[in-house]
Hints:
Strand order of the largest sheet: 4-3-2-1-5-6
CATH superfamily of the largest domain: Creatinase/methionine aminopeptidase superfamily
Largest sheet: 6 strands, mixed
CATH class of the largest domain: Alpha Beta
Number of helices: 11
CATH architecture of the largest domain: Alpha-Beta Complex
Amino acid sequence: MPNDMQFRSEAIDTERSSRIRHSLGAAGLGAVVCSLPSNVLLLTGYWPVVGESIAIFVRDGPIILLVPEDELELAEQSFADSVETFVPETLHTMTAVCEAVKLRLADIFRKLKLQAGSIGVDSGACSEAASYVAVHLYGNELSNMLRDLLPNSTLTPVEEWIQELKAIKTTFEVARIREACAIARAAYERAAPQLHAGMTEPEAAELLRAPLSNASVPGLPIQRRSGFAFCMSGPNSAKGSAAYARTRSRTLQPTDLVMMHCNSYVDGFWTDITRTYTLEPPDEQQRRMYDAVHAARTAALSAIKPNVRAQDVDSASRKVVRDFGLGACLRHGTGHGVGFSPMSAYSVPRLHAESRDVLQEGMVFNVEPAVYIEGYGGVRHCDMVLVTPSGYELMTAFQSDLQSFVLPSGESGRETRARVAL
């Protein structure tokens, strides 16, 4: 390699870089170039802010990270060998992002002296977690630039290859997800005792959301942390099966089921967690729903271990709900892969009746059995789970037992405090 490129020696996640090199060889790829933020995170350990960064991972060479100059301080914490920058706009000049990037890529490729061969590129359908209030997506422009700059190379779509790599988390990545789970736990434990009849769904959601950014949780150094939180109460909780969560203006009532959903993140690694509460002791219908979901959760967790089919975990959970006579209240599968995204149709594994995924050690996903009764309410309990050599690790081992959250006897207060449903 030329001496005029400055390479960094402190690799944070050598486990990930080693896996990628091995996988590039197995796929017959000489290098991979990606621009989607979650893919850049996979390839370099850096989660881009505004989406303009590009990762270049050469199978028999260095890992190069190209970022806007504004992001250099954050990007230097990556495991890339070299962090290069570009400046699309200054006080006196304004250059299109693709134009500025193409100039820097041309220089980088010249120094790398990439030979003709197969180069992987992300260019297909995707689902991407928001890394900032607005995120730049290159779309087909990245492929167009590579065709111009590497005319003797063959561009190969790598969407499936990327998802397979993302499915098995490294030790470092699992640690980040644990941090995100710990932050969510602190938020739930702070928010739940403050829920009461008379407050609105936005007020309840804010109780859960605020600690995602400011709760003190010891652990790894964190650059960026926050998340999303939603509250769906009463009949709105029955709509919690939708593809997106939605907090409305409804006021919580004493007899409500209150579904609190959270997606916390730490430096690009996400969670997907739900807890459902009651504001009074559950009535017969609510208790039946709780019992069904709790039993389905137990059945699903008991089935988790390496080499088990994901559809078998889903089947174990669904059977229990049907045995409770609530099969008609099922609205979605039992879970999906989580980590590089909180939710995605492309994340592996999918705990679904038609899934062909097989559980492997290192996979992280949620287990979210739920029942929804239209016009009445819904109960969902969503946990984060890691597949271990002999079974699973419950990464969200909190607020999972009704008896543990019954209010002390003799409490009277003006407000009816929340009891956790599961």
